[in-house]
Design brief:
This protein has 205 residues and is of the alpha+beta class. It contains five helices and nine strands. The strands form two sheets. It has a five-stranded mixed beta sheet, with helices on one face. It has a four-stranded mixed beta sheet with strand order 1-4-3-2, with helices on one face. A hairpin with a 2-residue loop joins β6 and β7. α4 packs across α5.
Amino acid sequence: MSPKSAQSDARIENVDVKLEVIVIPVSDVDRAKEFYVRLGWRLDQTPPGIVQLTPHGSGCSVQFGPGLTPAAPGSAMAYLVVSDVEAARNALVAAGVEVGGLFHVSPDGPVDGLDPERRSYVSRATFRDPDGNTWLMQEITTRLPGRIEGGLTSFGSASDLASALRRAAAAHGEHEERTGQRDENWPDWYATYMVSEQSGAKLPE
């Protein structure tokens, strides 16, 4: 098959495209760098004039530097996904970051405090960098159906994997209480639970 034929047969939905970097507008590069390093984000090796940092467990990085974007400093807003928003907020506060209070979304708007049912996508907290760029932390443990392709499961860090194992363990304990017997096949049950949680499939009972 000629290269031209191969290109014509390609379908855009089959082309892998991975979000790599988000450029954020800042007015003081050194001040911004100090702030994001304080968050525990990894400082990456980059060409001169570019500062790039990657949040722990993330496949996407942030960049800033002179002339990288015409956007006004402080005008950016982005989401950060965490498996436990309360723990994430406590860690940021301990690092000296000013973080807004925990809240959850409701049909009537934001409500103070964690979602009583700890549903995914509902509990949140926000913080801002020195320029005012806004980061919204969103607690997600179970993905909506179709968000993760093909039931693939991956964890960006050991802490994410540990959190998923703890949730599976708690759910498995409830499973054994319902059945009234010990489940000797718990590794398969854990695996099914963790894959279903990430892919948005029905959780095992």
